[in-house]
Write the structure tokens for this entry.
Amino acid sequence: MTDSALPLFGDDAGDREPWVDDTFSTAHRVRLDAHSWVEHVPGWLAGAEQVFEDLLASARWEQRWRRMYDQTVREPRLTAEYAELLDAPEVLRSMASALTAHYGVSYDRLWINLYRTHRDSTGWHGDGPSTRRRECIVPVLSLGAARRFLIRPTAGGASRTFRPLAGDLVVMGGRCQVDWRHCVPKEVGPSGPRISVNFAATSQSRPD
Ligand SMILES: O=C(O)CCC(=O)C(=O)O
Ligand SMILES: [Fe+2]
């Protein structure tokens, strides 16, 4: 057995083991309007690099296709879904528990997206079937390269820009999935790969 295969204990553990700030001490909430908000939690996850590498190597990445008008288009990113939280890696399950405890929403499934380069993206959308309740709380964790995350009113208007770094959470709350649209646009300059972890709750997929 080599050193790197040994379990992490002692002083080293703090540097390498992923660890979430379950006090959410850095959370900063931006009110979008009377009903919707976005919370940015910088540095929520420590050890993000290890989680990124593990997911990149171990997730069952799939190419998805999206129906747009009369065409079927290839999504410019890869996705892996964990329809049951129990099937997700332990580190993601413990993050889901921390989010459930903090936001009072029972996160019981998740999907992760891989933006391979600056040319991968996701267009303006609301999360649709996973967020049918009038008010939802949708946490998204960023890993890997920093990319812009934009949100703008569904009816049109100026967008707000967030730039989550690896380990940051961006949480959409209230009526964000109906009254607002979000996207991760392509970038002009080169960027390394990014993974986002999208936490979902069956309870939020049922209309109230
Ligand atoms: O990658 C992100 O930050 C957001 C992804 C997203 O909105 C989605 O998959 O529904
Ligand atoms: Fe989304």
Residues 53 and 144 are 9 Å apart (CA to CA). The pocket of 2-oxoglutaric acid (ligand 1) is lined by residues 113, 122, 127, 140, 149, 182, 184, 196, 198 (CB under 6 Å). DSSP finds four helices and 14 strands in the chain.
